[in-house]
Recover the amino acids of this structure.
């Protein structure tokens, strides 16, 4: 049964399990982080087993705060240094990268908190979400985020539709079904730099944090930021704080978010082939991993050439993208849509544990480069080719055998732990 749920690939990928080619390498934890994919072969855990303790959550938050403080201090040293502005810009790039990494890291941690996938206590979850996760990075307040994300973005009937704020984001950037290819490529590279898009992002952050939220949220957020700005000014770090910290969360983060957002899901998806709703839902998202096959079988000079090429790609493509745009759980974001109650520290190993197993969402799918994700987005929006993993071929070959997975009325006959814990949408 499980063989029919084997992972599926696109025509632009390597067509093999790239992560498996790394299994002989030392430091497997590092390669799991770089690629975003785990080789875990243990049995799936219950979602409750993946939650964090308070000390673990505090540790997760604290190292983000440490990055912020260190970056502002180092930023002041750079700004005060008697060096050319070009060197100042060059030395500032890693600072912007790390602040963006951790500010979006806090955002994604808060995202799991609101799903109940971090702490068991809802009271504690709301406290951490508000004071330590969302206010410092000007993220959306709890009630509003619950409505636009948990209800609309994860909704079985609203995901990747005009009711999904994440798709609205793509629409505002000028994307739609039936785009011409020159227009697609132009907007892929230039849309996030449009002054109006930058203005809209800053305006949205100000509105949701200080104007349209309830009075308690407005008071708390205004007080927090007043104290923070006052301390930065009084301590002599205001310029560095404004450029590196505020500039990162209001401007640079927008570009980071854009890089991963365009390949996050199949935007503007339409169920033209009339698949069961869960199969269609599962087809709209996929694992987005990084890496290329390690040259296991190559020898001599061929191995030396391919190894050098592999190292260069890891160093200058995979690691920078993981740091700047695809941090934390994002490579396994498809699994989050299937199992939103699984904690983000466990998302990669749990995805591996469920891979190739029967699921009402169909088989798991994956890409192995950002380029691959962009090409399938182009095929979908410009060429009308909206089934990059041939889910239709899989469904037609298996729909009778696995009818119970696609018929909610018959799901009781397959009450496995995996099915019980799947996405509550």
């Amino acid at each position: 049964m499980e063989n029919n749920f084997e992972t599926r690939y696109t025509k632009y990928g390597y067509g093999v399990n790239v992560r498996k080619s790394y299994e002989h390498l030392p430091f497997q934890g590092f390669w799991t982080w770089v690629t975003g994919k785990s080789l875990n072969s243990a049995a799936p855990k219950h979602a409750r087993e993946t939650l964090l303790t308070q000390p673990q959550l505090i540790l997760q938050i604290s190292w983000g705060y440490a990055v912020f403080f260190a970056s502002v201090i180092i930023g002041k040293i750079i700004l005060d240094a008697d060096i050319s502005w070009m060197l100042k810009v060059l030395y500032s790039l890693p600072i912007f990268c790390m602040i963006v990494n951790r500010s979006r890291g806090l955002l994604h941690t808060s995202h799991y908190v609101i799903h109940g996938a971090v702490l068991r206590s809802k009271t504690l979850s709301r406290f951490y979400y508000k004071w330590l996760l969302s206010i410092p990075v000007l993220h959306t307040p709890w009630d509003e985020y619950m409505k636009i994300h948990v209800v609309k973005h994860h909704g079985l009937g609203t995901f990747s539709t005009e009711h999904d704020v994440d798709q609205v984001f793509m629409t505002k950037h000028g994307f739609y079904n039936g785009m011409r290819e020159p227009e697609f490529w132009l907007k892929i590279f230039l849309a996030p730099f449009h002054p109006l898009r930058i203005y809209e992002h800053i305006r949205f952050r100000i509105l949701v944090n200080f104007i349209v939220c309830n009075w308690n949220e407005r008071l708390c957020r205004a007080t927090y930021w007043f104290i923070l700005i006052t301390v930065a000014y009084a301590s002599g770090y205001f310029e560095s704080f404004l450029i590196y910290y505020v500039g990162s969360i209001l401007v640079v983060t927008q570009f980071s978010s854009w890089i991963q957002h365009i390949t996050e899901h199949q935007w503007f998806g339409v169920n033209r082939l009339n698949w069961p709703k869960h199969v269609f839902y599962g087809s709209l998202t996929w694992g987005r991993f990084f890496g290329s096959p390690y040259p296991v079988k190559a020898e001599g000079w061929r191995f030396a050439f391919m190894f050098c090429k592999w190292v260069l790609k890891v160093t200058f493509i995979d690691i920078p993208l993981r740091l700047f745009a695809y941090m934390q759980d994002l490579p396994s974001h498809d699994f989050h849509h299937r199992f939103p109650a699984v904690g983000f520290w466990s998302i990669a190993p749990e995805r591996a544990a469920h891979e190739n197993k029967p699921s009402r969402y169909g088989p798991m799918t994956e890409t192995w480069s950002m380029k691959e994700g962009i090409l399938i987005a182009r095929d979908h929006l410009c060429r009308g080719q909206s089934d990059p993993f041939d889910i239709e071929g899989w469904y037609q070959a298996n729909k009778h055998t696995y009818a119970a997975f696609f018929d909610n009325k018959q799901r009781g006959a397959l009450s496995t732990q995996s099915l019980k814990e799947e996405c509550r949408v």
Residues 2-402 form one domain.
